[in-house]
Amino acid sequence: MDSLTHVLLGAAIGEATLGKQAGKKAMLWGAVAATAPDLDVFVGIFMNDVDKIIFHRGITHSIFFVLLSSPLYGWIISKIHSKDSINWKQWTFLVFLSQFTHILLDSFTSYGTQIFLPFTNEAISLSTISVLDPIFTMPLLIGFLFLLRSANASQNRQLIAFVSILISCLYLMFTVFNKIHVDQQFRNALNETGAEISKLDIKPTLLNNLLWRGIALVEDTDFYLVGYYSVADGTSDIEFELIRGNHDLLQPYNDLQSVRRLKWVSKGFYQVEKTTYGYLFNDLRFGRVAEFSGNDTPYAFSYYMEFEPGKGDFRVNRIELQIDRQRESSSVSLLWDKILGNDSVAE
What is the pLDDT of residues 115-152, one digit of tens each? Predict the structure, then answer.
């Protein structure tokens, strides 16, 4: 999830656990602890683009790291507030809850969180909620603003924190059941195509839980079927677009570390294009930056691959997306049209 949501959830947890004893300091440390797993982005500054993506949501987002670091953070906070009556065990519990909910919430998104490192590097991505979902964030934001305005002695502070957390959690549970329904719709539609599917990835589109994108790899081929399903448009019809992955282009390089890592990052949903200096590797799971504006917009995650004979491997650089305000503005309108099943959406 986005950093603001993690901060707000951590602050609510801080108030709910130690607000009565520590006042607004509990909110502060809950918010700080909730951002701690994302410190890996600073380490990633010194890594190449592929290693950076693999390292993010890696060891600092694991249960092992949370268990190991929470007592240390708790001890540090207790020393900072040594004059308070709260001991390090209480601070440790607050830090643990704030960090654990961070990695748990990230696991419900589609990017993948390696919560079981160092025992396995499998990235958990339940893909029930978008990384930016205002409906999940709004109760936490409203609760946070109330808590900031209310006095430490207010009797309603804990209740406000609990209610804001509860509403967001109930919405999160809704996304789980919604995903189950959507998953069945996609599987039914794919069965009607007659294609045998070896992999299927389904996720909500940005900012909502109503429009879902599904991509399926046809068995024993490098062809993908991509379609959208709206919970709100009143129809179960899903139209699929056929995309070829051109996997044969990388066949001679399958044993190279860069290729293996890119395949791992994309979970096998990728397209390769030949360029003047090498190849373009498109992660197909996230589609294009303006998916409903046509097929001339870039993919959200793409990488240039240029072979370096001296290293015997590819140098990989992620393509930095350029902000196009007109494109981004129209994308929101087109997304809403797609949710409602409006036929005016650009093909």
Answer: 999 999 999 999 999 999 999 999 999 999 999 998 88
- pTM flag (> 0.90): yes
Query: Tens digit of pLDDT for each residue in 142-158?
Result: 999 999 998 887 889 99
- For residue 325, the tally of other CB atoms under 10 A from its CB is 7
Please give, one letter per residue, the 3-state secondary structure of the chain: CCHHHHHHHHHHHHHHHHHHHHCHHHHHHHHHHHHHHHHHHHHHHHCCHHHHHHHCCCHHHCHHHHHHHHHHHHHHHHHHCCCCCCCHHHHHHHHHHHHHHHHHHHHCCCCCECCCCCCCCCCECCCCCCCCCHHHHHHHHHHHHHHHHCCCCCCCHHHHHHHHHHHHHHHHHHHHHHHHHHHHHHHHHHHHHCCCEEEEEEEECCCCCCEEEEEEEECCCCEEEEEEEECCCCCCCCCEEEEECCHHHHHHHCCCHHHHHHHHHHCCCEEEEECCCCEEEEEHHHCECCHHHCCCCCECCEEEEEEECCCCEEEEEECCCCCCHHHHHHHHHHHHHHHHCCCCCCC
- Please give the single-letter amino acid code of residue 241: E
Backbone torsions φ then ψ of 129, nearest 5 degrees: -140, 145
Instruction: Spell out, as residue ranges, where the chain has pLDDT lower than 70.
Output: 294-295, 324, 326-329, 343-347
Q: Which amino acid is at 341?
A: G
Distance between CA atoms of residues 144 and 34, nearest Å: 14
